[in-house]
Amino acid sequence: MIHRKRWLALAVSICLTITMLPSFGLAAPGPVPSPWKAQNIGSPAIPGNATFDPANGKFSVSGAGTDIWGTSDQFNYVYQPWTGDGAIIALVSSQTNTNEYAKAGISIRESLNANSKHVDLLLTPKNGLAFQYRSATGGTTKDVKAASTSPYWIKLERTGNLIKGYVSNNGLNWGDLGSATVAMSNSLFVGLAVSSHNVNALSTATFENVKVNNSGDVYPPTAPTDLKVGNITNASVGISWTASIDDVGVTGYDVFKDGVLTQANVPGTAYTFTGLKADTSYSFTVKGKDAAGQVSAASSPLVVKTSSSNDTQSPTVPTGLKSTSKTSSSVSLAWTAATDNVGVYQYDVFNNGVIAAIASSTSVVINGLNANTTYSFTVKARDIAGNISAASSALSVKTNAASTEPYSVQVVGNNLEVPWALDFAPDGRIFFTERNSGRIRVIVDGQVKSTPVITLGAPFYYMPRSEGGLLGIAVDPDFNKNHYLYVYHTYRTSNNQVKNRVVRLVEKDNKATVDKVLISDLPGAVYHNGGRIKVGPDKKLYFGNGNYGHSEETLNYLGGKIFRLNLDGSIPSDNPFGPNSPIFSRGHRNPQGIAFQPGTNRLFESEHGESSHDEINYVVPGGNYGWPKFEGPNHNGTGITAPLIYAQGTTWAPSGITFVTKGPWKGDLLVANLKGKQIIRMGIVEKNGKPTISSSNLSYLYKNQYGRIRDVVEAPDGSIYFVTSNNGDKNGDGSPDKIVRLVPNF
């Protein structure tokens, strides 16, 4: 028998042991797991340390040292041996600021010596990303830089002696930051590196989602989303879906019927199931696949019932019709979905008994209404066979009284990926670009379609937190006949240079393909890519390119110019510098907005200046606007044209511009501001036969209400649309980006 005191001692011991144990399933951070090792490189004065938290797969690495730079390095390295080709990916989720040049990132090294050959991709707290390399043992380190801070996804990919660096804002869409050819041994080291750039302090960085493998394709695609039903018969069902995203690229889709694979490697985002039974329900799912054979999770299932051989049953009546918002000229409606023995295809929305809209979902916006007026709305459901339900209960809605404000605000699109430009088709559709994703999307009947019109592939290029990517878009004036769209985008050449080009797309049924490259080899860079594109009143294509870091203004250099082309890409014979030059004007630092004044057809342009010298210019054929020697108030050079107005003592960062043709703002120029986070309304006055803009004739609209505003365009119906640039932009705050419509109250 155990003595009572021994029982007490044993109980205390057990309690202490339990207290010291980690909670079940929540193992405490510990040493880095095999095959990882940790070592201080170059003997920093304060030794670094590293831990790994298995609960969330997170590395915490602390390092001191002078730098990873020059001919010798000092830092803490968490590494593993590596042989052959492959990639390392990591999300740098945090970094302490011991110095603005402290570094945290990923590194491939030939040896663990301080002067080893290496290639790194490192973040700093205040000085951006650095892709850097030392191509000879003891040699001098070189680098390429870009703007960014943590958190950020980074990747190094090795193919023989060629090592490329990539960056991403989501770990799936990658933009390449640089490449280097460094002859290193087949067997080397790869890992996580941290240096404080401060001999008296440790800098700590956290790394998540660290992957090292023998292929550059590390992650499987995301699951396809938004499965939708198309045509239904008694023996077939057509479906479509929104594309998956992959870190390298999606190669196809596997489609499933009731959990059984029906067709592998479908190349597009639509498929028709055939050989089905009539009047039978099926569950369809889709999985994305990449080149490495990795497969995504399954989409959410879409349950569809085939029609009977003679479908005569109408859908049920839509219920719950309500108004979700209203202005003096519009009403937003929503309702509960109807059901059908086969499937509801669309909804017909009636205003006072007359059809006003057709909706594919359970919401719609009815525009063009009169202020302070009562309307009666009903909704009917329709199936694929054309059977129509009875009307819903009527909903009476009275529009708002005419506002003292000329416009009411209506959000049209939300949670977008850096929308950059938009334009209007004559059939009422609105096409817009997303800069980082390379996607063109479309708004139909006030709704943003989830499936892109096109996602640009190679050689399209974007670098997160830069100013390149998919930029301007313009609709052909004869779009109803030819369905041409014109876009300006950044791309990578075969010899790894950043350039810009203009391509023509042809669109059909909200899908587009690249039809023709109109001009290429325009200068490109991290910043100052220009990108705005418009079709002028003369049916010529106008677009601008920036001048980044080029010290001279010559006609042989295509940076810092506004160009004019025929719509087929040929050069107009009446261009100011001759029939062989696409240049229309010169001396622009970074043109961001283009608009033509109604009635005069004058070309106005907004331009990012330096040191609070943003400009609005009246652009004439052959004009020289001064950059890089003249800007803002300094335009005293011979043949230099002064701006109509420039920012004084502040920074606008002006972007898209548009003239207003209707209502109380008629004749005014609206200028979207990025840094200024506003729209400036500028009154235009004629003086001695020329336009003038006075600083006393400026109004500041929506200041700090929507963040950075990238583009503003007046629609044919008098509405004004603008897009924000907050999430994924280099100076954005991460808030969701949106498209906003200003609905006329006049």
User: Strand tally, please?
Assistant: 57
Fraction in beta strands: over 45%
Major beta-sheet overview: 7 strands, antiparallel
- Rounded to the nearest angstrom, the radius of gyration is 30 Å
General form = globular
Name the strands of the widest sheet in spatial order: 1-6-15-8-9-10-11
Give the number of helices: 2
**Mean of residue pLDDT values:** 90
Question: Would you identify the regions where 5 or more consecutive residues have pLDDT less than 50?
Answer: 1-26
Structural class by sheet pairing and helices: mainly beta
Helix residue percentage = under 10%
Terminal residue distance: 96 Å
Keywords:
mainly beta; 746 residues; 7-stranded antiparallel β-sheet
Report on the structure:
There is one protein chain. The chain is globular. The protein is mainly β. The protein contains two helices and 57 strands. Strand 17 and strand 18 form a beta hairpin. The N terminus is likely disordered.
